[in-house]
Write a structure and sequence with these properties.
Number of strands: 7
Structural class: alpha+beta
Oligomer: single chain
Strand order of the largest sheet: 2-1-7-3-4-5-6
Radius of gyration: 16 Å
Strand content: 25-35%
Distance between the termini: 23 Å
């Protein structure tokens, strides 16, 4: 999604009111250097099952598998990244996908493979 306004108020409004096909693209993360060399593009929308590494914040360096993606709140939940509540129960810590790097892709889905092939073909044809 390309926001054409400079006003923060309008940028926030467009973010909160974005339709699901735009939200999906906004939920993208950078690929690791190895994956970037292998596939030839920089980023891809995150999916459940991808292995990611946290690059920013208090949990920097934590690596784990994505167990849940919340498109409504623009957050992902990573295996092993939990916080203890006052009653002793554990809850997953939400992280924004721009703060993680994809280390290993979940290629179980045919749609995902088609997306990757399409992005690779577009990159080679433009070069």
């Amino acid at each position: 999604m390309h926001i054409k306004t400079k006003q923060p108020r309008k940028q926030r409004r467009l973010l909160y009111q974005a339709p699901s096909h735009i939200r999906h693209k906004l939920m993208s993360s950078h690929l690791s250097d190895e994956l970037r060399k292998q596939y030839g593009f920089r980023s891809l929308p995150v999916r459940t099952g991808d292995v990611v590494m946290v690059m920013r914040g208090d949990h920097k360096g934590h690596t784990g598998k994505i167990i849940r993606v919340n498109h409504k709140k623009y957050k992902i939940y990573i295996e092993g990244l939990v916080r203890k509540k006052a009653d002793g129960s554990e809850v997953f810590i939400p992280i924004h996908p721009s703060k993680v790097q994809i280390i290993k892709l979940n290629l179980d889905d045919e749609w995902r493979k088609k997306i990757i092939e399409r992005k690779m073909a577009a990159k080679t044809s433009s070069a």
